[in-house]
Every structure is written in C-alpha cells, then in structure tokens.
C-alpha cells in the first residue's frame, strides 16, 4: 500500500490532497500544527490515518515528522509539502524575525522533509516522489506579497536542485503551483476585495482545493514517472498574462474589459 505523508493536511489544499490520496487507497500520515483541524481531516478520509501535530518551522521538526511517519507506519513513498503561510507583509516592513519565520515554514521545512525522506529512501534503496506546493507568486509578486513570493521562488529552485541530485536514486521532486484558491483559512486570511481582484482567470471559474489535489496525485504517481524538476501550474490560466488589460488598439471610450468579466469569474 502506498504510504503518503502530507504536511499542512489540516488546511484547505493539504486536506484535499489527503482526501484524494485516500480515495486511491493510500495509507496516510498527516502533519500540521493545528491538532483539532488535523483530526477533522483524518475523520473525513474514511480510512485510518496517522496524525502528527508539529510546528514545522522549528529546526528539528521536519526531520522528526518524516522519521516518525517512516518508523510508525512503514516507508514513505510520497511526500507532499503543503504547509505554508501567505501573510501580507510589505518589503519595507520586513524584519529579521518575520522573514526568518516565513522562510522557515515555506522553504526550510519542505527542504528538510525532502532531505530526510531522501536519506531514508536511499538507505533502503527505495524510489520516492516529492511534490512541493509552490504558488503563482513565485513568478509574479503583488503588493504585500514580496516575502511570500521570494520564499516560493526559492522553493521552486530547491525543487529543481533536489530533482537534479536525487534522480539517480529514483526519487522524483516536482512542484504544483496553484493559482488563487479560496480556502477560508484562519491562519491565512484573505480579504474579499483581494479574492475578487485575483480571482479572474481565462477559464472563468474559481479554483478549488480538489483541482490542486488531482494535479498532485497525478504528478506524484506512476503516470508521471518520467517527470522530475517540473513546476506544474494549476491556475485556470491566470499566469498566462494580464487578462484585465485593455486591447492595445481599444478606444478610450470602449467598455472596460474587466467589467465584461464581472459574473464570469465565479
Ligand atoms: N489557497 C491559495 O490560493 C494558494 C495559492 C497558491 C499556493 N498556495 C499554497 O498552498 C499551501 C496550502 O495553503 P492553503 O491555501 O490550503 O492554506 P491553509 O491555511 O488552509 O493551509 C495551510 C496549512 O499549513 C499549516 N501550517 C502553517 N504553518 C505551519 C507550521 N509552522 N507547522 C505546521 N503546519 C503549518 C496550517 O496550520 C494550515 O493547516 C501553502 O503552501 C500555500 O502557500 C495556496
């Protein structure tokens, strides 16, 4: 039975990823720092899942979570790093503590879980698959999103670097880069104004955690066995360009294209 470790499993996207793997019959270990929400995710799975409450921003915690999953429920086949924070923090307001805390959870934690996972898999000669959850912000920042964008850009490079080194050991490392997905999170609050402004995309509907989860299970699984170091955008096409801009030749009194999209985005 495939054993999948999902971090951030108490959250919107991590929870949907856990559910998608459970639906495929996988054995799950779920990690997050919110015990009650983690238990709710585990209860939704309809099958036994091990839960590990941990603050993955602590230096030793990521390794400990992987080791506990491995020794508690057998070798881990797939690691999904979905825990993350996306605070609003202007570059002019950054201080050492806020930057370090953000990078500890968004970058150091997935790098350390991957390192521990890789060492254990290599020791036992087992193949493996890692999927990191990045963000469209890695390519395109927004006001107040600079530290977050920086952490995800670094995560994408760490994904490629790990893929380069671990491929010889049959360990694939990829990332899924979601567009905006409403999740109603306590730790990652998003204003209605922001959600409306960022929610527009060429496919004309809001993304769901399940959209992301389906991409993760595919990328982690055997159908993607010759893919590594890839960043798969799952964003309704929102990263393709600036959909809200007028056409170059549009007359000044022509209707605003953003207005034409009203009611088309949800
Ligand atoms: N929702 C979106 O629009 C969106 C878009 C792009 C990328 N993402 C990424 O998707 C991932 C999941 O985000 P989400 O939208 O589901 O948010 P969410 O808040 O629902 O989930 C994030 C989870 O991470 C956990 N977490 C945060 N800090 C932690 C720590 N120190 N230790 C352990 N767990 C910790 C939280 O408890 C929470 O359960 C994040 O990496 C986020 O950056 C989200």
TrEMBL record:
Residue intervals of the Ketoreductase domain: 2-179
UniProt keywords, alphabetically: Oxidoreductase
Pfam families: adh_short_C2 (PF13561)
Entry GO MF terms: oxidoreductase activity
Keyword Oxidoreductase: yes
SUPFAM superfamilies documented for this protein: NAD(P)-binding Rossmann-fold domains (SSF51735)
InterPro entries: KR_dom, NAD(P)-bd_dom_sf, SDR_fam
Family listed: Belongs to the short-chain dehydrogenases/reductases (SDR) family.
Annotated protein name in UniProt: Short-chain dehydrogenase
Gene source species: Streptomyces tsukubensis
């Amino acid at each position: 039975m495939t054993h999948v470790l999902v971090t951030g499993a108490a959250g919107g996207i991590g929870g949907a990823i856990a559910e998608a793997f459970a639906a495929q019959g996988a054995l799950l270990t779920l990690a997050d720092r919110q015990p009650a929400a983690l238990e709710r995710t585990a209860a939704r799975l309809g099958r036994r899942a091990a839960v590990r409450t941990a603050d993955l921003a602590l230096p030793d915690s990521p390794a400990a979570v992987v080791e506990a999953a491995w020794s508690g429920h057998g070798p881990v086949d797939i690691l999904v790093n979905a825990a993350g924070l996306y605070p609003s923090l202007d570059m002019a307001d950054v201080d050492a503590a806020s930057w370090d805390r953000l990078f500890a959870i968004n970058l150091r934690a997935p790098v350390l879980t991957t390192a521990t996972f890789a060492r254990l898999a290599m020791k036992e000669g087992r193949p493996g698959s890692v999927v990191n959850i990045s963000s469209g912000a890695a390519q395109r920042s927004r006001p107040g999103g600079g530290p977050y964008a920086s952490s995800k850009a670094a995560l994408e490079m760490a994904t490629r670097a790990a893929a380069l080194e671990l491929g010889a050991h049959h360990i694939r490392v990829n990332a899924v880069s979601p567009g905006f997905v409403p999740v109603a999170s306590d730790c990652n609050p998003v204003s209605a104004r922001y959600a409306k402004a960022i929610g527009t995309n060429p496919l004309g509907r809001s993304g769901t955690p399940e959209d992301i989860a389906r991409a993760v299970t595919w990328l982690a699984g055997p159908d993607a066995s010759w893919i590594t170091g890839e960043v798969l955008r799952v964003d309704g096409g929102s990263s393709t360009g600036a959909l809200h801009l007028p056409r170059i030749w549009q007359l000044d009194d022509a209707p605003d294209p953003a207005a034409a999209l009203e009611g088309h985005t949800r």
